[in-house]
């Protein structure tokens, strides 16, 4: 069984009197910095020279320093930079300023688990990973709620690093929703597998294949878009509220029977075999090595794939249809340019 913690098991006083640096002011960074600040803790934001976020952070009442200055100033340093840039920033601007007894924190385990960043033994290393995009970490905090978080400790020379992680989780609002104890290996491997097999890769290919099957059979692409992409949200909302059973309870008997008798013809034994292979590549580190190489080369394959995916028919039909969906955030459902 996993350990879960809530408000009463987490104590902000472990972070009181300590200087906390949040490096980066993106999705997670702005949420951690603002929530901790409003929880009464001493926070500064570490940004690149000339960063466009400086104005926004200062306007919100936060102290801003460079990444190197913030790392030198802080007792606890939370690295909320894009995972692919963390190693370079760590080597250049964080590591030279670490002092014995400092704590380094992450919101995802990739760089520690795959050995890209290897802090000295006298540095505490922890993770607080909200299971949600940063804007929700912020919004739920403002509403007096929070999002569930994972916490983990990789190195613990101080002996109380888990208390620090729980305090951080509480400071950003996570203890209201529940904090789950894990380790860097499990968080990293399940996160990568989940996004590849189910959340991003698997669901996107399923949508694409369904859409193209209908269009190739001569049905209007607009109908195919609604059926295979748009409606998926309604189904996922039911999963989210009440698990698989709630979806089956809510749909018609026809849909339930058709789904139960046909679903395993789509996700076949071979699909499951391939999932195992994808998990193995994550566990053995071959995916991580491929992704690190891709970044070292400047992301050429990612760029090529983005173009290919953006030019597909489902995206063109969708862009047109979403212009008519006045209820979408921003009034139109297109990805910001
Ligand atoms: P992001 O891209 O939204 O923000 C990154 C920030 O770092 C930006 O402010 C950017 O300007 C800054 N930055 C980029 N390169 C930099 C550099 N070389 N030097 C200094 N600053 C630089 O990133 P994010 O999504 O907030 O992710 C941060 C961490 O949180 C990652 O480890 C990620 O895995 C983790 N995480 C993200 C989410 C999510 O939903 N976004 C959820 C859980 C965990
Ligand atoms: Mg994830």
Characterise this structure.
- With 337 residues, the protein is α/β, with parallel strands linked by helices.
- 56% of the residues lie in helices and 12% in strands.
- The chain has a 9-stranded mixed beta sheet.
- β2, α1 (27-38) and β3 form a beta-alpha-beta unit.
- α1 (27-38) runs parallel beside α6 and α3 crosses α4.
- The longest helix has 19 residues, at 232-250.
- The protein is globular, with a radius of gyration of 22 Å.
- The N and C termini lie far apart (44 Å).
- The mean pLDDT is 96.
- Bound molecules: nicotinamide-adenine-dinucleotide (NAD) and magnesium ion.
In brief:
The protein has helices at residues 27-38, 54-59, 67-73, 83-94, 110-113, 134-142, 161-171, 174-177, 184-199, 201-216, 221-230, 232-250, 253-266, 269-284, 286-296, 300-310, 313-322; strands spanning 4-5, 19-23, 42-47, 63-66, 76-79, 103-106, 124-130, 149-155, 179-181. With 337 residues, it is of the alpha/beta class. Magnesium ion (MG) is lined by residues 191, 195.
- Give the helix tally: 17
How far do the termini sit from each other? 44 Å
**Strand arrangement across the biggest beta sheet:** 1-9-8-7-6-5-2-3-4
Mean pLDDT: 96
Q: Rg, please?
A: 22 Å
Poorly predicted spans: none
Shape: globular
Helices and strands, in order, run as EEHEHEHEHEHEHEHHEHHHHHHHHH
Structural class: alpha/beta
Portion in beta strands: 5-15%
The major sheet is characterized as: 9 strands, mixed
Assign a percent range to the helix content: 55-70%
């Amino acid at each position: 069984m996993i350990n879960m913690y809530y408000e009463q098991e987490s104590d902000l006083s472990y972070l009181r009197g300590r200087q906390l640096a949040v490096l980066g002011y993106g999705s997670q960074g702005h949420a951690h910095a603002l929530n901790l600040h409003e929880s009464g803790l001493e926070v500064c934001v570490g940004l690149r020279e000339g960063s466009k976020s400086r104005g926004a952070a200062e306007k919100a009442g936060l102290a801003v320093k460079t990444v190197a200055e913030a790392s030198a100033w802080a007792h606890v340093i939370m690295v909320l930079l894009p995972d692919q840039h963390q190693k370079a920033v760590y080597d250049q601007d964080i590591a030279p300023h670490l002092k014995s007894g400092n704590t380094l924190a992450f919101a995802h385990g990739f760089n520690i688990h795959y050995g890209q960043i290897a802090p000295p033994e006298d540095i505490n290393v922890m993770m607080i990973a909200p299971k949600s995009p940063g804007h929700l970490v912020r919004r739920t905090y403002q509403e007096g709620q929070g999002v569930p978080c994972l916490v983990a400790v990789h190195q613990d020379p101080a002996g109380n690093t888990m208390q620090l992680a729980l305090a951080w989780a509480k400071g950003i609002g996570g203890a209201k929703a529940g904090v789950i104890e894990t380790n860097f290996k499990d968080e990293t491997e399940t996160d990568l597998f989940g996004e590849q097999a189910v959340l991003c890769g698997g669901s996107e290919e399923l949508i694409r294949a369904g859409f193209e099957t209908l269009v190739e059979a001569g049905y209007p692409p607009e109908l195919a878009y609604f059926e295979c992409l748009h409606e998926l949200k309604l189904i996922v909302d039911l999963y989210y509220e009440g698990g698989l059973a709630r979806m089956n309870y809510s749909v018609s008997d026809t849909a339930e029977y058709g789904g139960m008798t046909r679903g395993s013809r789509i996700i076949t034994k071979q699909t499951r075999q391939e999932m195992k292979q994808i998990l193995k590549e994550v566990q053995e580190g071959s995916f991580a090595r491929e992704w690190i190489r891709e970044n070292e080369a400047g992301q050429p394959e990612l760029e090529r794939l983005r173009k290919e995916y953006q030019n597909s028919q489902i995206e063109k039909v969708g862009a047109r249809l979403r212009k008519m969906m006045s209820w979408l955030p921003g009034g139109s459902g297109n990805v910001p340019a």
